[in-house]
User: Which sequence fits this backbone?
């Protein structure tokens, strides 16, 4: 569960079978989102001990400090969306005027895929958070993203092929 205190402060609490857990990284200013990884750890977006948001691996039994950084760049990581098995996650790397969409291996901490989409951003609006604009196919074979730039309307793309999807005729499982 994420508790927001405005745009620059948030706190996270894992929810498990025992109920609400201890606060994740209580020394962080921001813990914006998280996901369970296949190994039982948590992967969270946080600025713990740094200026930028990165992806940290957390032991849910000892959530006060990161086990390690999975992605620690000199820019904000804006989004973290895990696949259905918790082995990989789509990440949006903020490069200033546009973003880079990539896949992070949650076990090895390697960026395994880097997509060749037009320069742009994951679509956002005043209602939907950025992680709701990305979806993995049920079998993890594809990643769909609502992507936009300054000169054209937002479109849904198959990230692995870079092709726009006709969402009115799409039959992809997990897209809608």
Assistant:
């Amino acid at each position: 569960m994420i508790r927001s205190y405005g745009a620059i402060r948030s706190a996270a609490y894992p929810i498990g079978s025992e109920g609400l857990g201890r606060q994740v990284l209580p020394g962080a200013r921001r813990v914006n989102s998280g996901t369970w990884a296949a190994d039982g750890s948590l992967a969270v977006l946080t600025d713990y001990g740094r200026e930028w948001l990165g992806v940290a691996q957390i032991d849910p039994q000892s959530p006060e400090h990161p086990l390690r950084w999975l992605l620690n760049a000199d820019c904000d990581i804006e989004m973290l969306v895990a696949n259905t098995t918790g082995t990989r996650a789509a990440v949006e790397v903020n490069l200033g005027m546009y973003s880079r969409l990539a896949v992070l291996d949650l076990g090895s901490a390697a960026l395994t895929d880097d997509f060749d989409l037009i320069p742009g951003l994951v679509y956002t609006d005043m209602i939907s958070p950025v992680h709701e604009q990305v979806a993995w196919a049920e079998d993890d074979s594809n990643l769909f993203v609502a992507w936009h730039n300054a000169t054209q309307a937002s479109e849904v793309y198959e990230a692995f092929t870079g092709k726009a999807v006709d969402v009115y005729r799409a039959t992809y499982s997990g897209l809608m």
About this structure: Residues 172-176 have pLDDT under 50 and may be disordered. The radius of gyration is 16 Å.
